[in-house]
Amino acid sequence: MKETVIKTDQLSKRFGSFIAVDAISFEVQKGEIFGFLGANGAGKTTAMRMLCGLSVPSSGTAAIAGFDIYKKTEEIKRNIGYMSQKFSLYEDLTVLENISFFAGIYGLSNSAIKEKSEALITRLGLQKEVKKLVGELPLGWKQKLSFSVAVLHEPKIVFLDEPTGGVDPVTRRQFWDLIYEASEKGITVFVTTHYMDEAEYCDRISIMVDGRISALDSPSALKTQFKAATMDEVFYELARGAKRGD
Questions:
Q1: 128 alpha carbon, distance to own chain's centre
Q2: Domain ABC transporter spans what residues (predicted)?
Q3: pLDDT tens digits, residue range 2-55?
Q4: Which CATH number is 105's domain given?
Q5: 45-99, pLDDT tens digit by residue?
Q6: Measured between alpha carbons, how far is 22 from 157 in angstroms, rounded to an integer?
Q7: How far apart are CA 118 and CA 115, in angstroms?
Q8: Best CA proximity match to 238, nearest among 217, 211, 208
Q9: Rounded to 5 degrees, what angle do the CA atoms 22, 27, 28 make?
Q10: Which residue segment(s) compose the domain that 27 sits in?
Protein backbone atom coordinates (compact mmCIF):
# COMPACT_ATOMS: atom_id res chain seq x y z
CA MET A 1 0.00 0.00 0.00
CA LYS A 2 1.34 3.41 -0.94
CA GLU A 3 1.39 6.07 1.74
CA THR A 4 -0.63 9.20 0.98
CA VAL A 5 1.28 12.25 2.21
CA ILE A 6 -0.83 15.01 0.65
CA LYS A 7 -4.61 14.84 0.41
CA THR A 8 -6.94 17.71 -0.46
CA ASP A 9 -10.70 17.78 -0.85
CA GLN A 10 -12.47 20.77 -2.42
CA LEU A 11 -9.73 23.11 -1.17
CA SER A 12 -10.46 26.75 -2.04
CA LYS A 13 -9.06 30.21 -1.44
CA ARG A 14 -10.94 33.43 -2.02
CA PHE A 15 -9.81 37.03 -1.82
CA GLY A 16 -13.02 39.00 -1.64
CA SER A 17 -15.03 38.06 -4.72
CA PHE A 18 -11.96 36.66 -6.51
CA ILE A 19 -11.49 32.87 -6.35
CA ALA A 20 -7.76 32.16 -6.58
CA VAL A 21 -8.04 28.41 -5.94
CA ASP A 22 -11.34 26.77 -6.83
CA ALA A 23 -12.23 23.50 -5.05
CA ILE A 24 -9.14 21.42 -5.90
CA SER A 25 -9.01 17.75 -4.89
CA PHE A 26 -6.05 15.39 -5.31
CA GLU A 27 -3.71 12.97 -3.52
CA VAL A 28 0.09 12.61 -3.65
CA GLN A 29 2.00 9.49 -2.59
CA LYS A 30 5.26 9.11 -0.68
CA GLY A 31 8.33 9.52 -2.89
CA GLU A 32 6.31 10.82 -5.82
CA ILE A 33 7.44 13.75 -7.96
CA PHE A 34 4.22 15.67 -8.40
CA GLY A 35 4.16 18.58 -10.82
CA PHE A 36 1.77 21.45 -10.23
CA LEU A 37 1.67 23.21 -13.58
CA GLY A 38 -0.05 26.23 -15.00
CA ALA A 39 0.50 29.69 -16.40
CA ASN A 40 1.46 32.57 -14.14
CA GLY A 41 -1.60 33.58 -12.13
CA ALA A 42 -3.26 30.17 -12.39
CA GLY A 43 -3.31 29.75 -8.59
CA LYS A 44 -0.29 27.48 -8.13
CA THR A 45 1.53 29.53 -5.49
CA THR A 46 -1.66 30.29 -3.56
CA ALA A 47 -2.43 26.57 -3.39
CA MET A 48 1.09 25.76 -2.26
CA ARG A 49 0.96 28.37 0.50
CA MET A 50 -2.15 26.69 1.88
CA LEU A 51 -0.51 23.27 1.76
CA CYS A 52 2.54 24.61 3.64
CA GLY A 53 0.40 26.08 6.40
CA LEU A 54 1.25 29.65 5.39
CA SER A 55 -2.27 30.62 4.30
CA VAL A 56 -5.63 29.60 5.76
CA PRO A 57 -8.04 28.08 3.20
CA SER A 58 -11.44 29.67 2.67
CA SER A 59 -13.06 26.23 2.49
CA GLY A 60 -12.33 22.55 1.90
CA THR A 61 -9.98 20.20 3.74
CA ALA A 62 -6.41 18.96 3.44
CA ALA A 63 -3.94 16.77 5.31
CA ILE A 64 -0.19 17.19 4.87
CA ALA A 65 2.07 14.39 6.15
CA GLY A 66 -0.97 13.20 8.08
CA PHE A 67 -1.63 16.56 9.78
CA ASP A 68 -4.78 18.65 9.44
CA ILE A 69 -4.14 21.87 7.55
CA TYR A 70 -6.29 23.90 9.94
CA LYS A 71 -5.26 22.48 13.29
CA LYS A 72 -1.67 21.23 12.93
CA THR A 73 0.22 23.91 11.00
CA GLU A 74 3.30 23.76 13.24
CA GLU A 75 3.55 19.98 12.84
CA ILE A 76 3.21 20.43 9.09
CA LYS A 77 6.06 22.94 9.03
CA ARG A 78 8.34 20.50 10.90
CA ASN A 79 7.70 17.77 8.33
CA ILE A 80 8.21 19.75 5.14
CA GLY A 81 10.93 21.63 3.33
CA TYR A 82 10.27 24.69 1.21
CA MET A 83 12.13 26.47 -1.55
CA SER A 84 10.96 29.53 -3.43
CA GLN A 85 12.47 31.16 -6.49
CA LYS A 86 12.05 34.54 -4.81
CA PHE A 87 13.54 33.73 -1.42
CA SER A 88 15.46 30.75 -0.11
CA LEU A 89 18.85 31.88 1.20
CA TYR A 90 20.31 34.97 2.86
CA GLU A 91 22.68 36.51 0.34
CA ASP A 92 24.58 38.49 2.98
CA LEU A 93 25.54 35.30 4.85
CA THR A 94 28.22 32.83 3.76
CA VAL A 95 27.46 29.40 2.35
CA LEU A 96 28.29 27.75 5.68
CA GLU A 97 26.34 30.32 7.69
CA ASN A 98 23.24 29.72 5.58
CA ILE A 99 23.47 25.96 6.00
CA SER A 100 23.97 26.24 9.76
CA PHE A 101 21.20 28.80 10.15
CA PHE A 102 18.53 26.81 8.34
CA ALA A 103 19.63 23.54 9.92
CA GLY A 104 19.09 25.18 13.30
CA ILE A 105 15.63 26.38 12.27
CA TYR A 106 14.78 22.81 11.26
CA GLY A 107 15.72 21.69 14.78
CA LEU A 108 18.90 19.74 14.10
CA SER A 109 21.38 19.29 16.95
CA ASN A 110 24.82 20.93 16.84
CA SER A 111 26.49 17.60 16.06
CA ALA A 112 23.99 16.86 13.29
CA ILE A 113 24.46 20.35 11.84
CA LYS A 114 28.24 19.85 11.70
CA GLU A 115 27.97 16.41 10.14
CA LYS A 116 25.32 17.31 7.58
CA SER A 117 26.99 20.62 6.68
CA GLU A 118 30.28 18.90 5.88
CA ALA A 119 28.53 16.20 3.84
CA LEU A 120 26.50 18.76 1.89
CA ILE A 121 29.48 20.97 1.10
CA THR A 122 31.45 17.97 -0.14
CA ARG A 123 28.56 16.61 -2.22
CA LEU A 124 28.02 19.93 -3.97
CA GLY A 125 31.75 20.58 -4.39
CA LEU A 126 31.60 23.89 -2.51
CA GLN A 127 34.72 23.44 -0.38
CA LYS A 128 36.40 26.51 -1.90
CA GLU A 129 33.23 28.62 -1.71
CA VAL A 130 32.22 27.75 1.86
CA LYS A 131 33.24 31.18 3.23
CA LYS A 132 31.88 33.15 0.28
CA LEU A 133 28.73 35.19 0.61
CA VAL A 134 25.83 33.43 -1.11
CA GLY A 135 25.21 36.63 -3.06
CA GLU A 136 28.52 36.06 -4.84
CA LEU A 137 27.53 32.63 -6.18
CA PRO A 138 26.15 32.06 -9.68
CA LEU A 139 22.36 31.62 -9.78
CA GLY A 140 22.63 27.93 -10.60
CA TRP A 141 24.72 27.25 -7.51
CA LYS A 142 22.31 29.24 -5.37
CA GLN A 143 19.43 27.10 -6.59
CA LYS A 144 21.27 23.84 -5.92
CA LEU A 145 22.29 25.02 -2.46
CA SER A 146 18.75 26.21 -1.71
CA PHE A 147 17.29 22.84 -2.58
CA SER A 148 19.91 20.95 -0.60
CA VAL A 149 19.23 23.11 2.45
CA ALA A 150 15.48 22.56 2.07
CA VAL A 151 15.93 18.78 2.41
CA LEU A 152 18.76 18.88 4.95
CA HIS A 153 16.44 17.72 7.76
CA GLU A 154 15.06 14.89 5.59
CA PRO A 155 11.45 16.11 5.47
CA LYS A 156 8.58 13.93 4.29
CA ILE A 157 7.69 16.50 1.62
CA VAL A 158 9.60 19.29 -0.07
CA PHE A 159 7.64 22.08 -1.75
CA LEU A 160 9.40 23.82 -4.63
CA ASP A 161 7.85 27.02 -5.97
CA GLU A 162 9.16 27.81 -9.48
CA PRO A 163 12.64 26.57 -8.44
CA THR A 164 14.28 26.74 -11.88
CA GLY A 165 13.10 30.17 -12.96
CA GLY A 166 15.81 32.20 -14.63
CA VAL A 167 18.45 29.46 -14.88
CA ASP A 168 19.87 28.01 -18.10
CA PRO A 169 18.67 24.64 -19.48
CA VAL A 170 21.81 22.74 -18.41
CA THR A 171 21.51 23.98 -14.83
CA ARG A 172 17.80 23.16 -14.84
CA ARG A 173 18.58 19.56 -15.80
CA GLN A 174 21.23 19.31 -13.08
CA PHE A 175 18.72 20.65 -10.58
CA TRP A 176 16.29 17.90 -11.54
CA ASP A 177 19.00 15.33 -10.82
CA LEU A 178 18.87 16.55 -7.20
CA ILE A 179 15.09 16.13 -7.23
CA TYR A 180 15.43 12.53 -8.43
CA GLU A 181 17.91 11.81 -5.64
CA ALA A 182 15.50 13.16 -3.04
CA SER A 183 12.63 11.11 -4.47
CA GLU A 184 14.71 7.94 -4.36
CA LYS A 185 15.24 8.57 -0.63
CA GLY A 186 11.46 8.61 -0.12
CA ILE A 187 11.02 12.38 -0.02
CA THR A 188 7.89 13.53 -1.84
CA VAL A 189 8.58 16.41 -4.21
CA PHE A 190 5.76 18.87 -4.94
CA VAL A 191 6.96 21.31 -7.59
CA THR A 192 5.24 24.23 -9.28
CA THR A 193 6.49 25.39 -12.65
CA HIS A 194 5.30 27.10 -15.79
CA TYR A 195 7.91 25.26 -17.90
CA MET A 196 5.86 22.63 -19.69
CA ASP A 197 8.95 20.58 -20.65
CA GLU A 198 9.62 20.00 -16.94
CA ALA A 199 6.36 18.09 -16.75
CA GLU A 200 8.13 15.24 -18.51
CA TYR A 201 10.33 14.79 -15.44
CA CYS A 202 7.38 14.26 -13.06
CA ASP A 203 5.63 11.02 -12.14
CA ARG A 204 2.26 12.77 -12.33
CA ILE A 205 1.16 16.31 -12.99
CA SER A 206 -1.88 18.44 -12.43
CA ILE A 207 -2.53 21.39 -14.72
CA MET A 208 -4.29 24.41 -13.26
CA VAL A 209 -6.29 26.80 -15.39
CA ASP A 210 -7.99 29.77 -13.72
CA GLY A 211 -7.69 28.29 -10.23
CA ARG A 212 -9.04 24.85 -11.13
CA ILE A 213 -7.33 21.55 -11.82
CA SER A 214 -8.21 20.93 -15.45
CA ALA A 215 -6.23 17.70 -15.85
CA LEU A 216 -4.31 15.28 -13.61
CA ASP A 217 -2.39 12.19 -14.73
CA SER A 218 1.04 11.04 -15.84
CA PRO A 219 2.63 13.04 -18.69
CA SER A 220 2.37 10.11 -21.10
CA ALA A 221 -1.31 9.51 -20.26
CA LEU A 222 -2.18 13.17 -20.75
CA LYS A 223 -0.42 13.32 -24.11
CA THR A 224 -2.36 10.24 -25.19
CA GLN A 225 -5.64 11.68 -23.92
CA PHE A 226 -5.19 14.94 -25.79
CA LYS A 227 -3.49 13.37 -28.84
CA ALA A 228 -0.51 15.65 -28.24
CA ALA A 229 3.20 15.24 -28.88
CA THR A 230 4.30 17.60 -26.11
CA MET A 231 2.99 18.95 -22.80
CA ASP A 232 2.88 22.40 -24.40
CA GLU A 233 0.23 21.08 -26.78
CA VAL A 234 -1.72 19.56 -23.86
CA PHE A 235 -1.67 22.88 -22.02
CA TYR A 236 -2.73 24.74 -25.16
CA GLU A 237 -5.75 22.45 -25.58
CA LEU A 238 -6.74 22.90 -21.94
CA ALA A 239 -6.38 26.68 -22.12
CA ARG A 240 -8.37 26.80 -25.36
CA GLY A 241 -11.11 24.66 -23.79
CA ALA A 242 -11.26 26.96 -20.77
CA LYS A 243 -11.79 29.98 -23.03
CA ARG A 244 -14.64 28.19 -24.80
CA GLY A 245 -16.11 27.19 -21.44
CA ASP A 246 -15.75 23.44 -22.09
A1: 29
A2: 6-235
A3: 899 999 999 999 999 999 999 999 999 999 999 998 877 788 889 999 999 889
A4: 3.40.50.300
A5: 899 999 998 899 999 999 999 999 999 988 998 899 998 876 678 999 999 999 9
A6: 23
A7: 5
A8: 208
A9: 125
A10: 4-244
Q: In total, how many domains does the chain have? A: 1
Contact 19, 178 (CB under 8 A): no
What are the phi and psi torsion angles at 65 (to 5°)? 55, 30
Among the residues of 153-206, which ranges form H helices?
169-184
Q: What is the pLDDT of residues 163-194, one digit of tens each?
A: 887 778 888 888 899 999 999 999 999 998 87
How far, in Å, are 68, 69, 71, 81, 161 from residue 61 at the CA level? 8, 7, 11, 21, 21
Can you list the positions of beta strands (E) in the chain? Answer: 4-15, 18-29, 33-38, 59-64, 67-68, 80-84, 157-161, 188-193, 204-209, 212-217
pTM (predicted TM-score) = 0.89
CB 234 within 8 A of CB 202: no
Edge-first strand listing for the sheet containing 204-209:
80-84, 157-161, 188-193, 33-38, 204-209, 212-217
